[in-house]
Amino acid sequence: MRLLFCSKSFSADLSWDHLARILPGHEIITCTRDAVAEHLRGVDIIIPFAAPITRALIERGSFGLIHEFAAGLDSVDVEAATEAGIWVARLPAATTGNADSVAEMALLHMLLLTRRWKETQIALAERRLYEPAGSTLMGKTACLIGMGGLGTAIARRLAALDMHLLGLRKRPEQGGPKNIPFQRVVGMDALHSVLPEADYVVLSLPATSETHHIINKEALASMKPGAFLINVGRGTLVDPQALQEALSSGHLAGAGLDVFWEEPVDPRHPIFQENVTATPHIGGITDTSFWMRARTFAANVERYVQGQTPLYAVNQPIHPRGPIA
């Protein structure tokens, strides 16, 4: 089978060619995200890696499976794929090392902001000792917005640091994750009533029409003065102009961002003049996550070859396309 990865590599250190040993007999080809249409000939499976898989592109190809190498399917027209008989599958964050990797990134941003990292670098350069005085996560309150696999992984780590946890989720009746102590879990409609209680607000939601700019001017105004915002979900969750204003006014003490309103983000954007720690959407880009995802992905490729329903499929085509003969 011919597999098209719509990115030249997973990262600079991990190329898709590394997967050859667990995908014997299959051809791996790659392209850039803006050149997918030029590489569709003979392709059985497309791996978007966030490349746009639009209706027009779907209609041009003869592939039968779109399989993201991550949990999010923001860039895939699932409706068009289903109509065309194409399976769409993903890799759940909770079981592929992705959630754990991103959770560690969220923790990194929280620690950098808490210990005033930018100021420590200035003090170091100026040979000043014992300053600035930082704070701790211990005893502080974190509000986790989104409690799927990623939110659960973050909660587990923050609970171990003796933080108080508040949770927001679409179905609050499900409560908090098992064996993780939450002060309470509420629905998304309670957002503005919970935000004033949190020292840290951590976003781990997917990008949908419902979550677009869920953190807007009003939500930021509801946050506790001096609080921190951490976004490891999707860039569209936050209104960047409103965030910049909240930071420049001093209402927020800082923000930690691994995802942005546009990617790649312009490093000259004025928001980076504020107390912002930023990483280039690398939360899930770890060797552990790569190989755990790879094993699940390879198993699903074989299911598709055998004519079986892919695991973690998000659709059910009435007349599925089979592999190209």
UniProtKB/TrEMBL annotation:
GO terms for molecular function: glyoxylate reductase (NADPH) activity; hydroxypyruvate reductase [NAD(P)H] activity; NAD binding. Residues 30-315 form the D-isomer specific 2-hydroxyacid dehydrogenase catalytic domain. GO terms for cellular component: cytosol. The keyword Oxidoreductase applies. Residues 109-283 form the D-isomer specific 2-hydroxyacid dehydrogenase NAD-binding domain. It comes from the Bacteria. Keywords: NAD, Oxidoreductase. InterPro entries: D-isomer_2-hydroxyacid_DH, D-isomer_2_OHA_DH_cat_dom, D-isomer_DH_CS, D-isomer_DH_NAD-bd, NAD(P)-bd_dom_sf. PANTHER family: 2-HYDROXYACID DEHYDROGENASE YGL185C-RELATED, 2-HYDROXYACID DEHYDROGENASE-RELATED. Belongs to the D-isomer specific 2-hydroxyacid dehydrogenase family. This is Hydroxyacid dehydrogenase. It comes from Ktedonosporobacter rubrisoli.
